Amino acid sequence: MHLATPPSVICALSRAWIDGPSARAGATPALASAPSHSREIAMHRSRLCALLIDCRTSDLDQAARFWAEALGRPVDPEHPGTRGNYRMLETRADEPIVQIQRVDHESRAHIDIETDDIPAEVARLEKLGAKVVNRLERWIVMQAPTGQRFCVVRVQRPGFPKNANTWT
User: Fold this and answer.
1) Which among 20, 56, 106, 137 has the fewest CB atoms less than 10 Å away?
2) Are 48 and 26 in contact, with CB atoms under 8 Å apart?
3) Got the DSSP string for 91-146?
4) Distance set, CA 117 to CA 44, 45, 71, 86, 99 (Å)
5) What residues have CB less than 8 Å from 85, skipping those under 6 apart?
6) What is the largest distance, in Å, between two alpha-carbon atoms of the chain?
């Protein structure tokens, strides 16, 4: 559901906002002056973040070269995400991240959904029928009702909340 609430109010609202004055002790001036009806609406934003290509392989660099050629996006060896079991492909600013990762399970592809409120996004997706598979330190692995796995992650790409959906 999209809100008609001004961005100055929407940007900083979180689940803690509806917990009362003690939770708002550190509120920003924009929120402190927000109309009282806005304080009762918990909202968050999310958007497609990344395509991850999971590869069960002993040669991750070879797998990354294949996908780089297949997608026309070179491997980005300088990207901070290119390390250990991960290789990042160069993508344009308005494109989702493409990451090749070494895994122990069968090879497959999955998406990441980035959000400014992981618990709220997980709850929204659970209401749609998704199930939590694994809660990790920085992300949640979920499974769609049709069996596909995907992750809910903190904001990763620049420009957020551009092209993000606003949910209540």
Assistant:
1) 137
2) no
3) --TTS-EEEEEE-SS--EEEEEEEES-HHHHHHHHHHTT-EEEEE-SSEEEEE-TT
4) 6, 7, 31, 25, 23
5) 60, 101, 102, 103
6) 57
Residue 21 DSSP label: G
User: HSE-up of 15 (CA within 13 Å, CB side)?
Assistant: 9
Indicate the length of the chain as a whole number. 168
**What are the residue ranges of CATH 3.10.180.10 in the chain?**
45-167
Summarize pLDDT for 8-49 with one digit per residue, the tens: 222 222 222 222 333 323 333 332 333 344 455 679 999 999
Please tell me the number of Cα atoms within 13 Å of 9 on its side-chain side: 15
Distance from C-alpha of 129 to C-alpha of 123, rounded to nearest angstrom: 10
Q: Which CATH architecture has domain 45-167?
A: Roll (3.10)
CA–CA dist 145, 95 (Å, integer)? 26
Which residue in this structure is represented by tokens 């927000």?
34
